[in-house]
């Protein structure tokens, strides 16, 4: 889930905007998306009024950019992609205008907004434009001194760029971006453990690599990438996140197919069997919580046993 951005440091006359922002966040987290949207829209309207009244105050632009970013998050969750795109593109423009005021503060926010814009464009099927925005996001992160924000943001942008290149039928560029993303995530994983806020993007990059290598018949590279994706999703499922069972099942199915093509079908079956044991154990430990995961992984196991 895309996180809401905390705009912080509100001026006294912006107290109501801050309150609306907090309200929208709580409503979003509790799944009341339409109410979150209305609170967000009211906050944006009030911020525009402040901006019009005090056009020279950059604080209002900063707050408005953040509100629009968060509004796009709500709209994307509601599958209102065109409206989300309008909001995130305006957020991008505002952050770009703010960068000269404090590059180190606003450039990472601009890069993040560019990443989100690219993701929204990709969801709308506008792959070429998505590539352009993701490239801009990567370039923005690469222009910054390395810190925790950049270490997390750059591989995420690279993973999304790879997926957009793939959708735009640019396999060489997709492999390059995905390989770099996986490499950077591997470094973070080795140093700090699995990057929880980036795990799904880590797996996305690995699955993109697997798909691209499989198309070329490079089964060794494909199965290596599969092992990364399966390992990440297993860890997430095991760490009390059964909602990742669907992604784990898909990664297991792809891995089994690629292992079979590589002449190693028994490894694919054993990999799925091991995952099935895991979710059955978790469902015994937490009755009912992993029931859907058990059903989904068992279905994959039945399919691979039948096929091989």
From TrEMBL:
It comes from the Bacteria. InterPro entries: TPR-like_helical_dom_sf. This is MalT-like TPR region domain-containing protein. It comes from Phytohabitans rumicis.
């Amino acid at each position: 889930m895309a996180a809401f951005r905390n705009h912080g440091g509100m001026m006294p006359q912006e107290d109501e905007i801050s309150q609306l922002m907090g309200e929208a966040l709580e409503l979003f987290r509790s799944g009341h998306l339409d109410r979150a949207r209305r609170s967000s829209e009211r906050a944006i309207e009030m911020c525009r009024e402040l901006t019009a009244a005090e056009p020279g105050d950059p604080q209002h632009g900063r707050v408005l950019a953040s509100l629009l970013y968060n509004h796009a998050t709500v709209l994307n969750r509601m599958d209102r992609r065109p409206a989300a795109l309008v909001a995130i593109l305006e957020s991008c423009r505002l952050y770009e205008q703010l960068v000269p005021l404090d590059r180190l503060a606003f450039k990472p926010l601009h890069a993040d907004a560019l990443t989100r814009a690219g993701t929204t464009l990709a969801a709308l099927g506008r792959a070429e434009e998505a590539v352009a925005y993701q490239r801009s996001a990567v370039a923005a992160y690469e222009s910054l001194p390395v810190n925790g924000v950049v270490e997390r943001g750059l591989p995420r942008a690279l993973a999304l760029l790879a997926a957009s290149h793939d959708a735009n039928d640019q396999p060489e560029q997709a492999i390059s971006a995905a390989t770099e993303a996986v490499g950077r995530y591997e470094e973070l994983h080795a140093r700090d453990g699995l990057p929880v806020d980036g795990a799904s993007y880590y797996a996305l990059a690995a699955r993109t690599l697997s798909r691209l290598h499989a198309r070329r018949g490079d089964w060794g590279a494909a199965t290596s990438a599969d092992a990364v994706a399966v390992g990440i999703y297993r860890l997430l499922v095991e760490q009390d996140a059964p909602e990742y069972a669907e992604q784990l099942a898909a990664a297991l199915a792809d891995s089994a197919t690629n292992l079979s093509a590589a002449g190693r079908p028994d490894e694919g079956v054993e990999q799925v069997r091991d995952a099935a044991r895991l979710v059955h154990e978790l469902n015994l430990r937490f009755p009912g919580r992993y029931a859907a995961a058990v059903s989904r992984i068992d279905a994959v196991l039945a399919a691979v046993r039948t096929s091989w």
